[in-house]
Amino acid sequence: MNRRRAYEDDGDFYGERNKKRRRVSENQEMEERLETLILRVGENSTSSLESNLEGLVSVLEADLGNFRSKILRILSDCPIKMPEKCTIYSTMVGLMNAKNYNFGGEFVEYMVKTFKDSLKQCQWDAARYALRFLADLVNCHVISTNSLLQLLDSMVDAANEDNVPQVRRDWYVFAVLSTLPWVGRELYEKKESALENLLVRIEVFLNKRTKKHHNALRVWSVDAPHPQEEYLDCLWAQIRKLRQDNWTEKHIPRPYLAFDSVLCEALQHNIPVIHPPPHQEEFEYPMPWVVYRMFDYTDCPAGPILPGAHSIERFLIEEHLHSIIEMHHWERKDCAIQLLYLPYKDKIPLEYCIVEVIFAELFHMPTPRYLEICYGSILIELCKQQPSKMPQVLAQATEILFMRIDSMNTSCFDRFANWFSYHLSNFQFRWSWDDWDSCLLLENEHPRPKFIQEVLLKCLRFSYHDRFKEMMPEGYAKLIPKSPMPHYKYSMEGAGEWCVRHTTKTLPCVVYVTL
């Protein structure tokens, strides 16, 4: 065999392999570029959202031939992992469906599969976000109203099953109710009677439902000044208020309204019949909770008005804040920044909403979702990020909690004391103790003076005793813990006689023998 010929053949082989590597790397770069464009749409930009969507749809339309599966996967993942941008991605899918009907059909099938897989894998939040996105596609003329109503009816059917846990039935009703703010107006205009029938079935279910868990999940034992409503009852009241307002809300951004002339001409798809998977013993469902309320509009100073407890805007704001905490709780700085830069923050008293939601997480019964120190570190970071407003709101919240501490749940009492001592340790233990002088007239075992005792006892772990003696007002001397002095019995008076008496009795006699 000719050695020179073999060398030339090897050169051709390596040349072809390098070309393949270049093609693979070019494809990877293109996929990453598409993913970045899709993920960042709707973020800060010099141009309008409408122009960004038009440009991105044109890019995706041109690349469908090469990256069809990649685009389908990204567009189905984004509204689940970033639910706050649900309407942006539904608008994008609507525009692509108007240009390419086949792609719209493929995407609906892909999204339905994602929804069904989430139900089977007990990924309840992902399933609820997928259902919301499917509902929002009705607004973009991608999915027909009849097929969506059929899906919602099948979920209510699942809520009426026999011999299944109540938490399963509750979740299916909650998923339907939490979807209606996005699509209620469209269903009201086109299928009013079918929507009313759906609501009647839900109302019948709620009236028959037992709520034995309610008292165990309450933060306070009384309902004054804010009632502690069970989560489904509260959401149902908010949906009824939304129905009274003709399904009009002021919080959800709807970019597809700018493209209505284009979207209304698109052909629609039907969702196939979906039967929720039957209950299995190993399935775990979300537990119920009580909606936490701390503020109302009278607590907020001049500025944006806090939405009422039964307005749907309150539910949408709180859900958005909870999702931000869930997504960024590992990094307190990112979490604080995301909370403070909530969209439409100029329309609401954002600081009050944030503090209320964080305390709702901290006082969640029977246990909070994350470690208590997680919420304390986020509140500290919020005070650093916004020192002009957040410390004042947090101080106001602390005053409200202290005044209502008489009826607070014991577990929440301990969490409140843990958080407050940790918070003081990060701000040089400064507090206006004189405002709480009235508690000095009460017995030491009363919840208010007892709370101060617990806080000071925990603060000792972050500082030293003499500092609190100098810092606290004189009237609080009886609440300051005793100095943690060591108790060494051998240095006490009479310790020498005690040692001699006991050692002579207990020490054995030693005899030395000389050999």
Quick recap:
With 515 residues, the chain is an all-alpha fold. It has helices at 3-40, 49-81, 86-99, 101-120, 124-139, 145-159, 166-190, 192-208, 231-244, 260-263, 312-328, 332-340, 350-362, 372-385, 390-403, 410-425, 447-459, 465-471, 495-506.
Number of strands: 0
Contiguous low-pLDDT stretches (5 residues minimum) are: 3-8, 509-515
Radius of gyration: 31 Å
* Biggest β-sheet description: none
Mean pLDDT: 88
General form:
elongated
Number of helices: 19
**Into which percentage range does the β-strand content fall?**
under 5%
Structural class per helix/strand content?
mainly alpha
Helix content: 55-70%
Span of the ends, CA to CA: 97 Å
N to C succession of SSEs: HHHHHHHHHHHHHHHHHHH
Main location: nucleus
GO molecular function: mRNA binding; RNA cap binding
Pfam families: MIF4G, MIF4G_like
Family: Belongs to the NCBP1 family.
Task: Provide a descriptive summary of the structure in words.
The protein has 515 residues and is mostly helical. Helix content is 60%, strand content 0%. The protein has 19 helices and no strands. The longest helix has 38 residues, at 3-40. The relative contact order is 0.06.
